[in-house]
Specification:
The complex is a heterodimer of chains A (about 325) and B (about 300). Chain A is α/β, with parallel strands linked by helices and about 325 residues long. Chain A has 13 helices and twelve strands. In chain A, the strands form two sheets. Chain A has an eight-stranded mixed β-sheet, sandwiched between helices. In chain A, strands 2-1-4-5 form a four-stranded antiparallel β-sheet, with helices on one face. In chain A, strand 9 and strand 10 form a beta hairpin. Chain A is globular and about 70 Å long. The two termini of chain A are about 40 Å apart. Chain B starts with a helix and ends in a 7-residue tail after the last helix. Chain B has a domain of about 180 residues: MetI-like (MetI-like fold, Orthogonal Bundle), CATH 1.10.3720. In chain B, helix 6 packs across helix 7, helix 8 packs antiparallel against helix 9 and helix 12 runs antiparallel to helix 13. Chain B has 13 helices and no strands. Chain B is about 75% helix and about 0% strand. Classes of the chains: A alpha/beta (about 325), B mainly alpha (about 300). The interface between A and B is medium-sized, with 28 and 20 residues.
């Protein structure tokens, strides 16, 4: 039994498509304490969502876990059946999706959709569930909750709907909340409100959060630890300070350079990361980032770099870091 | 809602008037007449018949007389079936067709919807392909072929079912099956594609993430969304099926309304043509209003204006 709330060790997951095997996750290890906020950043297709979904048994067909061990809140995810998953979904672990406009069922009232999950996982009766739903709407900052419960999703704005999604996710006070780009589909002012709400609720309810995003600004505000993913690998992992002030992997550095900054000089250009993401059907033999890396060495194209520990928490997967560490060890 | 229904009634009257007008003039433009036959009738007799039914008057006068009478609920006498009013013929024959058609509608829903869901649920498997082949056959094979095959197999060879008439439940089996084949196949395909679309929606993922079982997700969350196209199809389908099929009624010798449509046109039975056309148009319009209202009940996003 793991001491962590979430303990993913060497997870490997592939999608077996007609075109061939897509290795979506290659040796991904993540652990998370109770009440901790982990940010997973990376570009589309890097495996952020796949990692989180596999914790809930929501891996889409034809994806299959092919290696590693996953533990969550004392459950061994690897050998859980669909029926066992159903007991923890929406109960011990919940998820907020990217697009609140399409994530709610258009033909049922908000109240119905919130009460449904309460009735499913608790032994509350209909009127207690209704009462709880009203409380939840208040909790997520929706005014006139009694009226909203009777409304349909199309009568609510995007920000409101995302609040409803959060209310559904928190209905059974989960231990872990997975937020899959919860603000991507919202406009900027609403984004800030939703993030603030999430931090507030986290402090109030004490659940752990896995925040999946490609917005480094969001993780800087919210997260204690950050995992940077690229092509199904965690290329750098560390505390928020490690990632922002002491980035080691070339990809992380590239990501940070590509964020617009308020204190930038006039006419200063953003630095994009050159090249295109890897073809996951035919990943390169060595480091997947090598073709786009400014400091690519011969070995990078041949072999996947090992994990280099920078500190207790901070680690990277990069030959440069490995080389530096070996040199400093040799000097010592 | 009340205002909406009122508006639809007014619109319906306009539509029915338009249908009646177009039919009236088209029908009169077609050469021939009700009293032509191989057996030569004396010109005097023909003139007398035409005078009796008002056919000697100019077309415009006949048109206004007809519309005025129809507005008062008088659709006239049949020109061919002497001594019977159009209303009488429709009210005696429609129930026969409606009974066979009604059972066919229920059957096609009870079969088409679940099979469509099953096909969507098992997409890409053998079951899906099998259903797809059956549905394609059901749509592509004309009903007279289905009728003939059924009759040969169950009526002539196995002698399980009677080949004509509607005596007892056995008489209904073959006509109902023949009538239901097309709608069942169509509903199955419609349900499959609509279900596949719904199953890929984000809210289905939400339902799964809530911990709902497949059954609840499918029957509560997917069903209500996926059924909408079926409802749309159901309106005109019910109107057509309940008013009977010429072919099926002809083959199984059923005294229904379906035959009257064709018989009236072939015989230039002007009042009958008008009567059956207006009847079908009215039925169709009513079904469309019903569909709109049901739609509103199923999908709250729809507002009736």
């Amino acid at each position: 039994m793991s001491e962590y709330l979430v303990d993913i060790q060497h997870e490997r997951l592939s999608f077996f498509t007609p075109a061939g095997e897509v290795k979506a996750l290659n040796d991904v290890s993540i652990h998370l304490n109770q009440g901790e906020v982990l940010g997973i950043v990376g570009e589309s297709g890097s495996g952020k969502s796949v990692t989180a979904y596999s914790l809930m048994g929501l891996t889409a067909y034809p994806g299959r876990l092919i290696g590693g061990t996953l533990e969550f809140n004392g459950h061994h995810i690897n050998d859980m059946t669909e029926k066992e998953f159903r007991k923890i979904r929406g109960n011990e672990v919940s998820i907020i999706f990217q697009d609140p406009m399409t994530s709610l069922n258009p033909v049922y009232t908000i109240g119905n959709q919130i009460e449904e999950v309460i009735l499913l996982h608790t032994d509350k009766n209909k009127s207690q569930a209704h009462e709880r739903a009203r409380e939840l709407l208040e909790l997520v900052g929706i005014n006139e909750p009694e009226k909203r419960l009777k409304q349909y999703p199309h009568e609510l704005s995007g920000g409101m709907r995302q609040r409803v999604m959060i209310a559904i996710a928190l209905a059974c006070e989960p231990k872990l909340l997975i937020a899959d780009e919860p603000t991507t589909a919202l406009d900027v002012t609403i984004q800030a409100q939703i993030l603030e709400l999430m931090i507030e609720l986290k402090n109030k309810l004490g659940m752990a959060i896995i925040m999946i995003t490609h917005d480094l600004g969001i993780v800087a505000n919210m997260c204690e630890k950050i995992a940077v993913m690229y092509a199904g690998h965690i290329v750098e992992y560390g505390t928020t300070d490690d990632i922002f002030y002491n980035p080691k992997h070339e990809y992380t550095k590239g990501l940070l350079k590509s964020i617009p900054r308020l204190d930038a000089r006039e006419h200063e250009r953003l630095v994009p990361i050159e090249g295109t993401p890897v073809d996951m059907l035919n990943p390169p033999k060595g480091c997947p980032f090598a073709p786009r890396c400014g400091n690519c060495m011969k070995i990078c194209l041949r072999e996947m770099p090992p994990v280099t520990n920078i500190s207790d928490v901070h680690y990277t997967q990069c030959w440069m870091n490995q080389k530096e560490q070996m040199e400093s060890e040799a000097r010592a | 809602m009340g205002k909406y229904i009122l508006k639809r009634i007014v619109l319906a009257l306009v539509t029915i008037w338009a249908v009646a007008t177009i039919t009236f003039f088209l029908m009169n433009l077609v050469p021939g007449g009700p009293f032509l036959s191989e057996k030569a009738i004396s010109p005097a007799a023909t003139a007398a018949l035409e005078a009796k039914y008002g056919l000697d008057k100019p077309m415009s006068e006949r048109y206004f007389t007809y519309i005025l009478d129809a507005a008062h609920g008088d659709f006239g006498d049949s020109l061919k079936q002497r001594g019977r009013t159009v209303m009488e013929i429709i009210t005696t024959k429609f129930p026969v067709s409606a009974r066979v058609g009604g059972i066919a509608v229920v059957l096609s829903l009870c079969l088409g919807v679940p099979l469509g869901i099953l096909a969507a649920y098992k997409r890409g498997t053998f079951v899906d392909s099998l259903f797809s082949v059956i549905a394609t056959c059901g749509i592509a094979v004309p009903s007279f072929v289905i009728c003939t095959l059924l009759m040969y197999a169950f009526g002539v060879r196995l002698k399980w079912l009677p080949t004509l008439g509607l005596e007892g439940w056995k008489g209904y089996v073959m006509p109902v099956c023949a009538l239901a084949a097309y709608p069942t196949s169509y509903i199955m395909r419609l349900m499959r594609s609509s279900m596949l679309d719904v199953l890929g929606q984000d809210y289905m993922r939400t339902a799964k993430a809530k911990g709902l079982s497949q059954k609840v997700a499918l029957f509560k969350h997917a069903m209500r969304n996926a059924i909408l196209p079926i409802i749309t199809y159901l309106g005109p389908m019910i109107a057509y099926t309940l008013t009977g099929s010429f072919i099926v009624e002809k083959i199984f010798t059923i005294p229904g309304l379906g035959g009257e449509f064709i018989k009236a046109i072939n015989g230039r039975d002007y009042t009958m043509i008008m009567g059956t056309t207006i009847f079908l148009a009215t039925f169709m319009i009513i079904m469309n209003v019903v569909v709109d209202i049901v739609y509103k009940l199923v999908d709250p996003r729809i507002t009736l204006k």
